[in-house]
């Protein structure tokens, strides 16, 4: 399984553009990190055809340029960075919508079972009859995730899914998506900020800066003191734990490099 994007270019305005992005995603977990405004959401929206960008996309080696809309609809699950919670439908109905796209159809026993299974797995069953506009931010986030994966898409794109979640739910979500990647051979692309969680869960990491790829590789290759200083302007220490994963300790905001040097004193 592979999704390849090649020479993706997109211009929002004279102030921001995505520049010639080429990447290959596999059936594992790729994390996209980078500062606010570096173009992470713009990149995933280009992949999702929400923004019409220049460039090529290949799935399993074949170009999907001509049928991109259909391809996205059939194969891709997406959790946007901000989810809407103004609809007064129940949690059960919201998750069901991920499966059937409309609530007018009669729901089969099998579909009902599928929704119940996912509600159980996500510890949401007790909220099934609640209206989604009455949920907490974290609960809504879990409902939206359930909605985006219920169809078992081949590609799952999550834009900052850990926002609003307590630590237990952050781990639970990451465990769920990584087992989807390994057991169902799903390509998972996940925009996130928590570098220690990327170290633990990501197979590959893309670091973005100003609409460009700053670096790409395994956590070992990408998570360096130099990257953290250059991208986030933070000094850090990096250790390796018993599982062989890097653990990053953030020390402080990095001191600015002096703009000029005093050559002699008088
Ligand atoms: P990130 O997800 O990394 O925080 P975004 O991809 O959302 O960053 O945004 C990248 C840049 O593009 C930012 O400077 C942002 O202000 C700008 N931008 C995002 N969306 C739009 C838009 N719809 N129109 C114009 N500029 C936008
Ligand atoms: Mg974003």
Automatic annotation (TrEMBL):
GO terms for biological process: iron ion transport. PANTHER family: IRON(3+)-HYDROXAMATE IMPORT ATP-BINDING PROTEIN FHUC. This is ABC transporter domain-containing protein. It is a peripheral membrane protein. It comes from Clostridium kluyveri (strain NBRC 12016). SMART domains: AAA. GO terms for cellular component: plasma membrane. InterPro entries: AAA+_ATPase (IPR003593), ABC_transporter-like_ATP-bd (IPR003439), ABC_transporter-like_CS (IPR017871), P-loop_NTPase (IPR027417), Siderophore_ABC-ATPase (IPR051535). It comes from the Bacteria.
């Amino acid at each position: 399984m592979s999704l390849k994007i090649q020479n993706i270019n997109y211009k929002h305005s004279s102030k921001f553009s995505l520049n010639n992005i080429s990447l290959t995603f596999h059936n594992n977990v790729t994390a996209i990190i980078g500062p606010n405004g570096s173009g992470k959401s713009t990149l995933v929206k280009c992949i999702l055809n929400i923004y019409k960008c220049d460039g090529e996309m290949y799935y399993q080696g074949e170009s999907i340029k001509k049928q991109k809309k259909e391809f996205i609809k059939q194969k891709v699950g997406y959790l946007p960075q901000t989810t809407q919670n103004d609809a007064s439908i129940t949690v059960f109905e919201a998750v069901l919508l991920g499966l059937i796209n409309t609530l007018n159809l009669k729901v089969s026993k099998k579909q009902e079972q599928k929704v119940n299974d996912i509600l159980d797995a996500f510890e949401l069953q007790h909220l099934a009859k609640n209206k989604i506009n009455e949920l907490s931010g974290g609960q809504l986030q879990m409902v939206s995730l359930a909605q985006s994966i219920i169809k078992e898409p081949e590609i799952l794109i999550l834009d900052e899914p850990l926002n609003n979640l307590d630590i237990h739910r952050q781990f639970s979500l990451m465990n769920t998506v990584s087992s989807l990647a390994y057991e169902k051979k799903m390509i998972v692309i996940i925009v996130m900020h928590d570098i220690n969680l990327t170290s633990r869960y990501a197979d590959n990491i893309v670091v973005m800066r100003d609409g460009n790829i700053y670096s790409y590789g395994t956590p070992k290759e990408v998570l360096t003191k130099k990257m953290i200083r250059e991208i986030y302007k933070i000094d850090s220490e990096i250790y390796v734990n018993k599982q062989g994963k890097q653990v990053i300790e953030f020390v402080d905001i990095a001191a600015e490099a002096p703009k000029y040097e005093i050559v002699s004193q008088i």
